[in-house]
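Appendix B. Raw example, untouched.
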Amino acid sequence: MLSKKQLTEELKKYFGFGTFKGNQLPVIQNIMNGKDTFVLMPTGGGKSLCYQLPAVLMEGTAIIISPLIALMKNQVDAMRNFSEEDGVAHFINSSLDKQSIDCVKSDLLAGKTKLLYVAPESLGKEENVEFFRQLKISFYAIDEAHCVSEWGHDFRPEYRRIREVISKIGNAPVIALTATATPKVQHDIQKILGIADATVFKSSFNRPNLYYEIRPKTADVDKDIVKYVKSQAKKSGIIYCLSRRSVEELSETLRLNGILSLPYHAGLDSEVRSHTQDQFLREEIQVIVATIAFGMGIDKPDVRFVIHYDMPKSLEGYYQETGRSGRDGGEGKCIVFYSCKDLEKLQKFTQGKPLAEQEISRQLLFETQTYAESSVCRRKLLLHYFGEEYKEDNCNSCDNCTKPRKFIEGQELLSLVLETVRDSHEKFKAEHIVDILRGEESSEIISYKHDELDSFGSANDEDTKTLHSVIHQAMMAGYLSKEIENYGLLKLTVAGKEYIKHPTPFPIAKDAEFDDDDDEIVQKSGIGSSAADDVLFSILKDLRKKLSKHLEVPPFVIFQDPSLEAMATTYPITQEELANIPGVGAGKAKRYGDEFLRVIKEHVKENDIIRPEDMRVRTSPNTSKLKATIIQLIDRKISLDDIAESIGLDFGELLEKLESIVYSGTKIDIDYFLNEIIDRERIEEIFDYFQTAETDKISIALKNLGDDEFAAEGLTNEDEIRLVRIKFQSDIGN
């Protein structure tokens, strides 16, 4: 066994480093002693070195099981840079032709290769299993081991066969490595890989150099991102989107605005993806816009920002993706543009899957939503999720800690929550406890006779969000625990039982409130933006009110508030500039613009305002082309369902496009579709409502219009109202 000094010398010799980081040394010693090993080490902690150095020093070949071709290529290239012998590292996957594979096998049989990277699918192929039996295997390293667990953020069924395949090839020590694993996921990994007795090395999840922030996702999100990236002065960044289409469109928008950017997703040719990754590493492009297909193991230490265009599916995924910034210990800003609608879309993706899988997905999304909307220190929330306690009151490196938070006294609410968990015998999830406290007479509440509990309805004046916040903060304070294996059943801890007997003050942070209506998301807690010029904004609102009375139309028909805010920020003084304001367009600029432009010009002149020289964010012609296609199909009276399917949108996304079209001043006629699927009296009822409404917000319309029990199949009440609102805006406003 090599001593610490000898291993340090070997580290310097092969990799050029003078010291080990964190747990690297004991991990390497454990592997070289032939013991199974579990390594939980956050991104940037140096996981790869934990198996690379022992592989070089030990007899035989280490098989590294890795999920991504791009990651394998990156790792092999890095290893070859450290060695004089190209054969020191190879990979086998579907990207290689027969001649290349024969070359790899020749080096393996000759004993030149110390590390062989394989995908789990390649590992299990019969011909490969037969070949690997001929080799001296030093150990198996399973990278991204969280893929083993259904509770992990990137579950892959083929990972569950790894133990079975290893047994066929020949047993050797196993090292499982991951950057993200909750206690539940860790347990799954060890059990499924057959390393229950492995030595466990857990590093802290805290990345003190990272700044975490949640921003509301508005209709102007592309514009917000362009401005942010331009403010970062050539710093490297990654932007994650959930869909390939969003990746392509956003990357194109960035390029049109002078930002060196390329898209990356699984639908692109492997050579294109590989070239894009190389360009990013060589700093030939500033930003990669990608799906989660990009980034696993990416070895770029100076990524300065990671933006999430859509909220990720889980906190594990979020943590790993944000962990790709600031790996060198320098600045790393992690920004999420959050919308409740995004979570609803993610939930819909699981429909049709097994119920257990749907429940797991729902719980992971709930944790994500809690994180996004909470006003608790984000670092504290993240570390608690991964089973680690952060004891500081203020991390001074997240939006919730750097901006004032509103606290309320929660002693009474906490006592009610804990008593309700106790009285329901600790057999229910948070949603059920909240329903009891709010006095919801659901079938489940009544069947368990929980409407007879003393606490039933005791907090009916509190909203659901506040009660969930109390439960979550009670968990972080150690009064409640959640049984993940049983889908989140709440249990009282010893401290929780003691609190019921002797309650003490319990200040809780009031969570942020998001309103997703009509592509306008307002965060009332203070995060986000408002009009830069409050005086002008007030003047423009008064002018809109005056015009609405004169024209006898609701104010929102003329311009919505976000459009007025944009005018009060960018000061448009020409028809062309006004047409580029979100929600305006050429039609409205011509119809209503003259008086607004006159007022803005006067305000700019009187106050000696220097207007921003370049506030316009250029958009992709593909966006305009898509809108033109939609309008043409509507002119041909094609069913909206068929239009959505033909252009690759779901029905809700098509409605968003139609709203954008009419609110920009373009007239469209969808009567042919409305008259076929919605009762005429219902159309008239909704249309008349908008004639007199003060706002066109859907949430308020739903409350005023009530449920339509005869809604067309496949349509919700919200869909009906949105469709008629589109007709109303087109007929009255345009």
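End of appendix B.
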